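User: Hey, my collaborator sent me this sequence without any context and asked if I could get a structure. I don't really work with proteins. Can you help?
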Amino acid sequence: MKLLKRVPLPALRVFEAAGRTCSFVEAAKELDLSPSAVSHAIRKLEAAAGLTLFTRNTRHTSLTLEGAMLLDHVQRGFEEMSRGLAIATNEPAVPLRLHTAPTFASQWLVPRLASFLEDHPGIDLRISASTDYALFDNDDFDLDIVYGEPRPSPHEKTPLRIEELTPLCSPEVAKHLRTPQDLYSQFLIQSDGQSVQWRGWFAANGMQPPSNYGLAFDRSSMGIAAAAGGLGVVLESDLLAEQELASGRLVSPLRHVSNSVRYVGHYLVHPRRPRQPHAVSQFKQWMFKALSAQAI
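Assistant: No problem. I've predicted the 3D structure and written it out in structure-token form, which is a compact way to encode the shape of the chain:
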């Protein structure tokens, strides 16, 4: 407590911005200060605390071990103060803004949202779905769930789960599927936006792919719905079709007599931060727990 009295509190705000961006210039822009003012505030904080918080050279600024430890606690403190002020003033909470691939949203996320909202009533969740990448530079989103390998970026990316691609169909259609060769007599439903399509599955099973398909969609969700409606056989992920498989609307008749394709289909992407906002951490913890339970 005695040390805290010596530390200029405005300098902590400057330190948080500089530590989060690892740039005095970016911190200056964010706080509407000059870079020299940011540098002066950091030196004043270091002198008061008796610590070296940054290593500096002409090309790069980075946190020292002590600086990283302090930043974690400072960010936690600012977050708690913000939450307290919001509660005291009845100010609406800052929403958690999630961007996601459309089929993941409709097939996996939305059916499970009730449990998240029940467990986290204080989090205001906003969801946007599209095939574009989220824009983090303008602070438009906090998290992005993307389909396929994310494009190169400085952001943190985490694979969600290994998915299994196998032929799926209604129980009625499954009566006509005993061996992989039986697929040649069926309508095969193609998802044009899928990373691994029918051609890849046939190759994995040492078979020639058919020359044409009965149906093709640009969204996996439509292919799953078509297969559940008995229109044909779709090559789809056990992650995206989990609801239909659990209800029995879809079955996987060839899973044990053929080679499935296993791959990482979805990734979670977000900006790198020493400490993530509370709502971001809570959502990530909930989602990975749900994904783990589904995989069992």
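In plain terms: The chain has three domains: 2-88, 96-160+266-295, 162-262. You can pass these tokens on to your collaborator as they are.
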